[in-house]
Amino acid sequence: MKILLTNDDGIKGEGLRYLAEWCAVMGDVTVAAPKFEQSGRSQGIVIKVPYEVVLSAEYEDLGIASYSVDASPADCVRFIADRVGVDYDLVFSGINNGFNLGHDIAYSGTCGAAFEANYAGIKAVSFSTIRGNTKKASEYLPAVWSFIIGNGLLEYSGMLNVNIPEEPKGILVTEQGRTFFRDHFVDAGENMYKAAVYLTRSVDGPLDLKYDTDAVLAGYCSVTPLLTNRTDHDALKKISERIKK
């Protein structure tokens, strides 16, 4: 099995190191990760200026070839798919230092790389966990992978978004939840503003475990199948029926 690893925390990211250590025994692994942190870049790409791509020694100790890419996580996948010429079976993105849940998926560079992999026809899994928990989350990867393979999830979906809480009670297949975080912009002086994150909901309220946000709050690892196609098929059907009348 040929696996490409990437992330949005950068090539020196702790979560990527743990992911690489786990994947090293699974097959032929390549790392292509941003030179610097690219959190919040979503599926953004660089299109008008050249950017640096160099071979890195960061994962030599694991026998893994790696590339440092001075661009976004999506660019890492785009470059490898176009220039390296390897027919990858999977792209793993993460382990992100921070959850990617609900509407935050749209902002996530971790998920953006997985979406880009799907654009290239490669199945992908993005992994995230609560901040400061990447080491512990990596110890749960075999259980998650066993669940994914054992239930054939990648036969049904080209992309899975996995969020691992600190002490997982188990694994639930979920749908994308609602907004969990919002930014409040704080005046930093001299026409400068800084985003300060705050919760949009009480963590003590009633939970609906069909959502990724609620499942993780309840202590479960969530696995959410996602689509790159953003067509609202329900609306499309209703509009088409109305136009025909």
Largest sheet: 9 strands, mixed
The SS-based structural class is: alpha/beta
User: Helix share of residues?
Assistant: 25-40%
The name of the CATH superfamily reads: Survival protein SurE-like phosphatase/nucleotidase
Shape designation: globular
- The sequence of SSEs as H and E is EHEEEHEHEHHHEEEEHEH
Gyration radius (Cα, Å) is 19 Å
Cα(first) to Cα(last) distance is: 52 Å
The CATH architecture would be 3-Layer(aba) Sandwich
Order of strands, widest sheet:
3-4-2-1-5-6-7-11-8
β-strand amount: 25-35%
* CATH topology description: Stationary-phase Survival Protein Sure Homolog, Chain: A
Q: What top-tier CATH class fits best?
A: Alpha Beta
Chain oligomer state: single chain
Mean pLDDT value:
90
Task: Walk me through what this model shows.
- The mean pLDDT is about 90.
- This protein has one domain: Survival protein SurE-like phosphatase/nucleotidase (Stationary-phase Survival Protein Sure Homolog, Chain: A), CATH 3.40.1210.10.
- The chain is of the alpha/beta class.
- The chain starts with a strand and ends with a helix.
- The strands form two sheets. Strands 3-4-2-1-5-6-7-11-8 form a nine-stranded mixed beta sheet.
- The protein has eight helices and eleven strands.
- The longest helix has 12 residues.
- Helix 2 packs parallel to helix 3.
- Helix content is about 30%, strand content about 30%.
- Helix 3 links the parallel strand 5 and strand 6.
